[in-house]
Amino acid sequence: MHEGFIRYIEDDIAQHGFKLKEYNSMIKLGRSKVNGYLDDTKKELAFARIDDVESWLSVLVHEYSHFRQHTNGKFNNGNNYFDIVDQWINKKKEYSDKTLDRAFRFVRNCELDCERGALKIIDEFGLSIDKKLYIQKAAAYVYLYFYARKHRRWHGKRAHYRYKTIYSLMPTTLRGRFNTIPDEIMEIFEKKLGVE
Ligand SMILES: [Zn+2]
Fold first, then answer.
1. Rounded to two decimals, what is the model's pTM?
2. Distance, CA 58 to ligand 1 centroid (Å)?
């Protein structure tokens, strides 16, 4: 049934000139390695079919949700903001606090909207993904941007935010606004991921 979902995506994105790219290892993207991406310039949706089914299926759903945002004209012109966040965290460029705050807010809202869309896709296709866990991982991912803004670091090479000790403490709904981070959640990140 997952093959059917994959073919559906392939056909759907093809109507907008996008290609689906499947990898069997982590994908090199610049200096980092990722599990998937949507590139609206190259018109590619990529995912790495690694680890267990639920993991790569979750990545595919996430990227496909970004595709739907793209076709709905949501969060367009955001590439610059994604680049700003990326370049700043990797200490390649400096920006004013005002620019950083704006960029982080944009990226955070885009990812939150993407995750909410992903939940709809999971329901729509009846995918075998544990929604409660998906939501907690998604919440951790969105909150991670607050940690990254404060400490100028990401979760490191391994996706630490996926660790059960972190995401089991996250909210089990994405209905909140996520425009601030509760102190206790920041403390969890600081304790588990470290500070500089
Ligand atoms: Zn995303």
1. 0.94
2. 11
* Cα–Cα distances in angstroms (integers) from residue 45 to residues 16, 60, 96, 113, 190, in the given order: 12, 9, 32, 18, 33
Ligand 1 centroid, distance to 26 Cα (angstroms)? 16
Q: How far is the CA of 52 from the centre of ligand 1 (A)?
A: 20
**CA gap 104, 108 in Å, rounded:** 6
| Long-range contacts from 80-83, C-beta under 8 angstroms, 24+ separation | 81/106, 81/107, 82/107
Q: For 18-55, what is each residue's pLDDT tens digit?
A: 999 999 999 998 777 889 999 999 999 999 999 899 99
Query: Is the separation of the CB atoms in 31 and 86 below 8 Å?
Result: no
Kindly give the distance from the C-alpha atom of residue 194 to the centroid of ligand 1, in angstroms, as a whole number.
23
Q: How far is the CA of 196 from the centre of ligand 1 (A)?
A: 26
